[in-house]
Amino acid sequence: MSESSTRSATAVAGEPAGPPPMVRVENLRRSYGTGDAAVHALRGVSFDIARGELVALKGRSGSGKTTLLNLVGGLDTADGGRVLIDGTDLAGLGEDALLELRRDRIGFVFQSFGLLPILSAAENVGVPLRLRRAAPGERDERVALLLALVGLADHADQRPGELSGGQQQRVAIARALANRPALLIADEPTGQLDAETGLAVMELFRAVVRSEGCTALVATHDTQLLGLADRVLELSDGEITEH
Q: How far is it, in rounded angstroms, from Cα 167 to Cα 237?
């Protein structure tokens, strides 16, 4: 077991009473395939993320970062171990409860942006609020606030094809924040951006964590971006080490 895993296990056994960490991962294991061909993506991964923390996850391509993010976000099921979000064990939730958790408590940002091309920036940001059936006035107010937060108040009516890559990623971040998630998960959010734009997006994550009061787990391989995180976790050979 890695040093960080040992610290986490010790904390679980003897920590004082109080609010749980926003994310707790305990002895998480995930493999693909069987027998000699099996790929062991995660080998007993354990760590905590405190509330309000921006944690960067680094590791070479194919190291299992996306697998780990999918498990933390309730998009995949582990072979062993468990994930707790704000004290809730994901393994104990049915499909409907998981869907509700992802909709209301977790925001996702992906490398490919994932915006709907026929909708304007404002309409894309408003999609999660429509799914929650928020009142039109509440929806419009939240969308306007978020577009201002990411610096796109003047681009509300533009469609994704009319925006730069950095602007599209800012729209995606705003959309992820629409339902005021407690946890923001981002998988290589700067992977399609140039260095300068990528740095600006990572700085935006830093600002968002502070202004929205959420927690963020961001996978990135960019060394420059790692310096903006409160803490860096490295995934190597299916295990986590902390920097």
A: 35
Using the structure block, give the residue that is written with the tokens 């610096």: 151
Class of residue 211 by CB neighbours under 10 A (exposed 0-12, middle 13-18, buried 19+): exposed
Q: What proportion of the chain, given as a percentage, has pLDDT over 70?
A: 92
Q: Model confidence over 10-19: pLDDT tens digits?
A: 444 555 567 7
The residues near 197 (Cβ < 8 Å, ≥ 6 apart) are 164, 165, 166, 190
- Contact by Cβ (8 Å): 158, 78: no
- For the ranges 90-94, 106-110, 153-157, 207-211, which has the lowest average pLDDT? 207-211
Is the whole-model pTM more than 0.90?
A: no
Helices (H) and strands (E) in the chain, counts: 8, 10
